[in-house]
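Q: Joint fold for the lines below.
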Amino acid sequence: MGSGLSYQVPDIATADIPENASREAEIGAPRPGFGPLAPASDSLYTRRIMLELSLLKAELAAVLKRQIHDTFAVEHEPVIQVPPRRELGDLAFPAALHLAKTLRRKPRDIATELAEAVRFPGIVLRVSVEGAGYLNLFLDRGRVTADLLETEVFGDPAGGERSEKIIVEHTNINPNKAAHIGHLRNAVLGDVLVRALRRLGHPVEIQNYIDDTGVQLADVVVAFTDLRGLDAAAVAALPEPFDYTCWDLYSEVGRWYEEDPERQALRRQTLHELEADEGPRAEMGRLVARRVVHRHLTTMRRLGIGYDVLTRESDILGLDFFTRAFEKLKASGAIHLEESGKNQGCWVMPLSQSAEFAGLEDPDKVIVRSDGTVTYVGKDIAYQLWKFGLLGRDFHYRKWGDEGLWETASEEGGGTHPAFGGGAKVINVIDARQSYLQKIVRVGLESLGHTEEAERSIHFAYEMVSLSKAAARQLGYLTGDGDGEQKSLEMSGRKGIGVKADDLLDQIEDKCRDNVSERYPDLDAESLDDLARQLATAALRFFMVKATTTRVIAFDFQDALSFEGETGPYLQYSMVRERNIRRKLEAAGMETEVDAETVRGLDAELWADDLWDLVLTAAQTAETVEKAAGSLELSMIARQALELAGKFHGVYHRHRILDEADPDLRRARMAAVQVFRKSSLALLDLLGVPVPEKM
RNA sequence: CUGCCUGUAGCUCAGUUGGAUAGAGCGGCGGCCUUCUAAGCCGCGGGUCGGGGGUUCGAAUCCCUCCAGGCAGGCCA
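A: Joint structure:
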């Protein structure tokens, strides 16, 4: 609510993380050990954000770099990594291995010489030479843990914004049918990206593009009007779930066209009327789109996914965005009217100059059809120009509902609204099958001379979701044994092949509810539903994020309905266990938290390797998230959360806290768990995984 | 035909800018609930990293080539 945006998610992380009261003092007075060696760069130093470990890494690398220069008189940028096992050390420099060739000496000798000469800050307790010639560092475990307790995982929230506005477009489901699991992958990835960017300090605007003048919507309008013979009032009166009705109708009308190709004329006529926004078909289109979008938003809200503004294609047309872009494209010579050939009468954009399109059979892309209608790419170029504030026009806006969500409009009168569009960077979350089209949009920007914007026009591509053979068979799409060779089945809205998002969510929730009620037979219905929802959200969202973007997800019910191992509930369970420790400590009248000063004074012997390993893993959280957001490989966030939870579960079994007699040992364990909790909460927040009280 | 993606354990997949003994989950087998809740933990078994060349002290990772699968190359989106 605070931001005035619709993007409302339970603020899981911040709710539980204690405010860092000493931040100002800390910035003014760097900890000993960091001070004299702090990087000269002010920006890095004052940011002092969460990148605690990466900052330390950079510092240590700088020290070693200097030493290499002093000892061997060569310039070398040392790589720093984390050794596979704690016995080997906490950080490792493979520099000697890299230098062996230029120096013509054995790596181990180089490493040994460096180890004897180099003076690292006090947080490094010991150095050793390991393996083929790694220079390994052992850190002060208590001190690192204490430092982590004192700092925000993602830095200072008041530290200011780190960039100009980033626009993220995601979801973009055609408003003519129910959302399916492929759309979920898009929405979840987009949502996690937004959460990560915001946490890293970037202002983000979330746009959900509504293609309400396209062929797909036209088909459903034809289905209602001509196939069913319904008018707008009758369609308005249809019961929910309206998007399910459309789902069936959409595949039905496809078959209806095939029966009589003449019926295609109805589609063209409807498309024209939608574009012109005239007549009963246009009215039907508005109605259908609106009802379906309502359903989509409801589905997404179940998963904690929201938006700032719905951008409607009809407004791009209604406000002559394309006409404006068309003028620019013509004036710059980016497109021309084809006088002859198969594209005669079309305005086309030549792609042959661009190296990206080398080897293309047909090097021209139609932007305006011979009948005067505009292709999707054409509208998308206009839309992209607006996103960067390059069009010289803006939409009008009105509130979508009462939740701070806005939609575009063609007429004035929506009252004062936030400033939309005009981003410095645009990230479009669109599946990899549309890479070709997204490239054309970029080329469009380039050919208008907006080379920088073209560079900051990012297609966040991910592979599609198909149905595993088992899933396809379960749903009756594959029958018999004739299709034995087929590995998976591609979903198709047009053919009505797919798993609807709400159906899947219902199924997961049902299973969660069963599991919970088995464990807690006395739980009231409301709590039961609530818990089931939280678990289902976690299971589904995590399932979508853990896959790397380059891999097709062959959706399988067994995988998606699994709550053990690499799943969302596994993460949640670790948090429940952590909470139980504190609950029991409190019930026993014992201290539930340790402070950094106490931890700093604890004996080094208290930190067992696996306990320390949990801390060191947590210390890499922000760095991992930064890398994930920067590379758009969000599965790294999921992996980090898994690794952290896994190590916690191990520690939970091996190092009991409640019945540990030695108070200092108990404190060390508590500190490690506190560090875990802090990082894990931050990660779960990014992943949109709710944290249940029990499970 | 051209471009992009994928090929790692029975299955589903990780594997950071080339580096330490190629990891995890599921499934299989065997342990662990009088315990800070077993949606968990521990152990065992399981690998020509698609094939072949090359670069390198070192290749699952980089280069070349071949094979297999997926997607794209519409006046559909």
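Q: Anything notable?
A: The first strand of chain A starts at residue 91 and ends at 93. Confidence is low (pLDDT under 50) at residues 1-51 of chain A.
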